[in-house]
């Protein structure tokens, strides 16, 4: 059997690295796309089936070069898998998030995913390949302070659904992976970025959103601690690339993630009250909610 080839974006760490390694161990030839050459070198040392390439998914010139590089290597066999995994998580209250940060979130997690997909589609058509898009449980339900990240993953879900239908007649499957809490460096990176954003925010922002931001930070630390290993996601990605009947969506993760998805089944106002009650809770601050009928996603915090 001829060797299958896949490209994995954001392969320097976490889920991307786990996917690259799992596929390589299964005999696939893997193009592990990274931004930092040192990360690429380290990956190449881990398995001989791995070739690294430099790819910032927001850089059109780098995308073109990557397509040329992969195209030359695979020739007429084309590409059998594209794993759109690269991503960032921006956490901040929407009232105060610098608009450039919101743009950056959407650029990396949404627009760039489509730029990479468009560029590699000719090779995927040639190789009768499949596409796997890394969404999140955050693409199914949203929590306060994570609006930018969830907006990006909701958008990725919509694009993936449209793409799957558009490519169905061509026999190219598009699978969506929805991880819950996975133990990867993304938590520390987004906590550091959130701290940086918070430092730049006005005293007013601190006054209004200090409590929920602190609670979100605690939740992020806990999620990282209790998260499942990235290998669980890599297993789902492999299924999406190899199964005779791949699923459309793969929910991967611990009970908390499933609860987050299930919370979506609650009536919207109940869900809002639950989340707001949880995040704005602070010993010194008593949350005074309006009666249910009058609640317009608003609340008052009394010291
Ligand atoms: P990591 O931070 O470990 O991995 C993110 C990867 O994306 C890194 O390789 C990073 O590269 C890369 N990346 C970031 N920006 C760019 C860019 N502009 N161009 C190319 N690569 C880029 O986190 P995860 O492994 O957790 O995240 C992988 C995916 O999984 C993301 O899409 C994330 O949203 C999703 N996910 C993760 C969950 C979790 O709990 N961990 C839950 C749900 C979804 P570099 O090292 O250069 O920064």
Topology:
Blueprint lengths: L4 E4 L5 H12 L3 E6 L2 H10 L3 E5 L5 H15 L6 E4 L14 H28 L3 E5 L12 H21 L6 E6 L2 E2 L2 H15 L2 H24 L1 E2 H13 L6 E4 L2 H9 L4 H12 L6 E3 L11 E3 L1
Helix pairs in contact: 1-8, 3-4, 4-5, 6-7
The structure holds NADPH dihydro-nicotinamide-adenine-dinucleotide phosphate.
NADPH dihydro-nicotinamide-adenine-dinucleotide phosphate (NDP) binds next to helix 1 and helix 6.
Trace the largest sheet across and list its strands: 3-2-1-4-5-6-9
The CATH architecture would be 3-Layer(aba) Sandwich
Q: Could you give a short account of the major beta sheet?
A: 7 strands, parallel
Query: How many helices does DSSP assign?
Result: 10
Strands, total number: 11
Whole-number tally of structural domains:
1
**Poorly predicted regions:** 285-303
Helix content: 40-55%
CATH superfamily: NAD(P)-binding Rossmann-like Domain
CATH fold field value: Rossmann fold
CATH class division: Alpha Beta
Integer-rounded radius of gyration: 21 Å
- Which structural class fits the helix and strand makeup? alpha/beta
